[in-house]
Amino acid sequence: MHEVSCTVTPDLAEELEAYMCEYVRSNWSLLQIKDNDPIKLQGFFEDRAQAEQEYAEMRAEFPVLPAEPDWREFDDQEWQDAYKAFIDPWSYGDLHWVPVWMREEYHVPAGETAIYLDAGMAFGTGSHETTRLMAKRLLDYRDAHADFAGKRLIDAGCGSGILAMSGAKLGFKDVYAFDRDPEAIRVSIENRAFNELAESSVEFVDAGLEDGLAGRQADIILANIQADVLKIYAEQLINATAPGGVLALSGILAIEVDDVRAKFAPLAEAKFGQVTIDSRVDDEWCDLTIFTT
Q: What is the pTM of this model?
């Protein structure tokens, strides 16, 4: 495994995080141990040639990145141990997300639900604010609908499959998930097996937003992607939302939410008439959720 890294400013870190969130493969990450520590951009790749190519592409997007970053090579075991050190369990309500290597030591209270996962190189460990915001919307929907098991759920841009599997574990019977990154689909299928979920419980498909939503509608759509991409596919997302359904969007920086609302609100009102739009904030991130009639 090869690591390429460099220190970045807080302003650049915000731009990088927005760029990386959900829509690009998560070989890249940002690391800051404590609030006052330097922020480091890290990329992890199978070989040096791939690392050099990916860093060159990142510099093309962000020319202020240094021409000579830091390089490090380490073995698989060292990589796995370093990765695990930054992944912790997380819970909300009666839903628990647990790293698969902590399966035996983590206590799940009776009657509550656990999702075991290993994100690998796919986005979605449950530790990111955008994913947590979507999990809360999923649980809210379940609690508000006594007949939720019969409702259709779509996880658009599924990453590691965490939200789709959460829906299946909670009792949704019609769960469909897609991502444009083949590695994300591979990891999602692997995580489905970790959770002893039948193949029929969650359908994972390698597709982007246009193809993934074509000809489909759902009662609840969770789209944790990126603000700019959400706006591009606003019409497709609105059309895929069934009347009376809920469209929950995330991957949105708090400073971007008004622009996202301005794009989605007129389309939702034109299709459904009166709608209710709600937003929640978690640190610098937020969601935008549309309740249709």
A: 0.77
